[in-house]
Amino acid sequence: MDFFQVVKTRQSVRAFALREIEEDKLQQILDAANKAPSAGNLQAYEIYLVRNASVRKELARASLRQDFVASAPIALVFCANPSRAVARYGQRGEQLYSVQDATIACTFAMLAATTIGLATVWIGAFSEEKVRQAISAPEGFRPVAILPIGYAAESPEHASRRTLSELVHRI
To answer: What is the 3-state secondary structure (H, E, C) of 74-95?
Structure first.
């Protein structure tokens, strides 16, 4: 699938089939996330790969009861690791660049999953502390996004988007 087809095809799916993800497909997704650009190439983020069903249920509870998080066979939790950016970039690296790094990596994973026929949904509404505890991440790591991944059990309609004339401000 070419890039523009991937972008056009990608949509948020909240119902997943009871089917495991093949290991080679999972590896492709993780490789794509690892190739994401990051500030100073520091990769100031960590990825938690969650297969454990009880942990996925904890993530669902921590995500304001978005129970579909638990129905995906895998959830990736992207955490900012500010300590990797603070030495080079100070407060801006700690508070912003590490978060940007995690979100870019999550985006690469999401687009890679779409490319190979898998479904995802970006989860950003959650209790950071409850997610951090669920995945046993150390203090200082900041959960930024949860990406449930699986085979789609639904085909929702594409959401409407703002027009470019509304969105783009030409200067």
So the answer is: EEEEEEECCHHHHHHHHHHHHH
Cα 91 to its chain centre, rounded Å, is 24
Buried b (16+ CB within 10 A) or exposed e, 111-127: bbbbbbebbbbebeebe
Determine whether domain 3-154 maps to CATH 2.60.120.330.
no
Cα gap 26→154, rounded to integer Å:
21
Lowest mean pLDDT among 6-15, 65-74, 152-161, 162-171: 152-161
> What letters, b where the CB count within 10 A reaches 16 and e where it falls short, cover 78-104?
bbbbbebbbeebeeebbeebbbbbbbb
Q: Amino acid identity of 74?
A: I
Which structure tokens are listed for 17?
């089939």
Per-residue pLDDT band for 1 (boundaries 50, 70, 90) equals confident
Ranges of each domain in the chain: 3-154
CA distance 69 to 171: 41
**Chain segment 117-136, per-residue pLDDT in tens:** 999 999 999 999 999 999 99
What one-letter code names the amino acid at 125?
A
